[in-house]
Hints:
By secondary structure, the chain is of the alpha/beta class.
Amino acid sequence: MSDLSPGRFMIGPDSRPAFTRYARLHEDRARGRSVALAPERAYELDPIGVIVLSALDGRISVRDLSAQLAEKYAAPVEVIARDVTTLLQGLADKRLLREGPDPFSAPARSLFSRSITRHDGGPAGLLAELTHRCPLQCPYCSNPLELERASAELTAEEWGETFRQAASIGALQLHLSGGEPTARRDLEDILAYAVEAGLYTNLITSAVLLTKDRLARLADIGLDHVQVSIQDIVADNADRISAYDGGVAKKYDVARWTREFGLGLTINAPMHRQNIAHLPQIIDFAVEVDAQRIEIAHIQYYAWAELNRAALIPTRETFMETVEVVEAAKKRLLGVLNFDFVIHDHYASRPKTCTGGWGQSILAVTPSGKALPCHAAQTLPGLIFENVRDKPLGDIWRDGAAFNAYRGIGWMKEPCRSCDRREIDFGGCRCQAMAVSGDPAATDPACALSPDHARFAAFAETESQAPAPAFIYRRYGGASMT
Length: 482
Ligand code: SF4
Ligand code: FES
């Protein structure tokens, strides 16, 4: 393959790769396997992969490593060299490897995992909503309309216990989110508990409250990855969408400091009608600040976004343009910027596997400790959410009525029940089914087989062509028009 991306790290015989500061080997004891932990991902490794990656120190060349392995396993060196190069190029293209030792190198293997007992079927990730406080007021916020008060928030010690329990049932990734997680004065204490529990830590932030000193402290404690969310890269428009002035300049700063400290960086760009025209500039921004990943996610219409739907839904044509922009950028930026692209549901024909399947992959904990199978689950009627203050997380995950309500396929109605994709997408999103069809057990209306799909697509076409109404901004104590 030709090297289309000038910044791509090409693995050759003389390369001396090492893990970056934000990637590492990890023993996933809950599932009895080894993985490479990386921003938002855990890549499963076979035994040979573990041997190869364990040897990477930024000093040994691919040629010498291949020769050593060929001798040790009495295998042809050309075959070994080819396999090693393929493995390493895949990781280099994800930007998990670098040439030479990283001055910020983390331990090659996480020794602190508490997942000491097997727990197949545990969650891979925990979304910790540390607070609902936030200086921004984005009209598509996924927090509930009833925001939780600071006085009800879990303490740092309670979060620490929650992290230990999450790791013990198999969680690998921890997403420190909100609201704005840096609004917590004790974020350093909370992070220290997470690092001690052996979790891969991901700080999801709007960046506007962070100082360089504070980010340096978080990096020292062991933060792995920062996800900077942006409203737009055109400053006036970003200010208007977030109802906050001066955010863009701050995002540039925090993105640059993140890389200066050797941390992983993702730019998170929720996409909608009011920033969609600037997608090419947003991608350029991610490259300029040396992010390894960008998430371009057409937003989901529940909670605040549902209230603002008519102001946010893009036309089908502009949505299709984003598909083209992303496809072209993926090719152009191979090995430089990795893309997570979430398409727009109204113009889809099959739904996404929302949250990796209900009660199968992630769990969310609200600021006051309610454990949810998805971050928007409180929009569903009739579910009772247990609190981590009252019950062990493993019991809630395994036996909680809310977690079992839509787990697997037993709850499904037609057309999902007899569909051959039912164990692929698990019927799509329960929260969207509720928002549009009024039935949380209905087929996601993003699916063309849903009886509500035509209506779902039609109102998007209509609303997106009409003049956009004013935003209803996210605020404590109810909605406000500005
Ligand atoms: Fe998925 Fe249900 Fe649609 Fe089948 S009918 S593709 S299972 S949402
Ligand atoms: Fe709740 Fe999709 S957002 S299941």
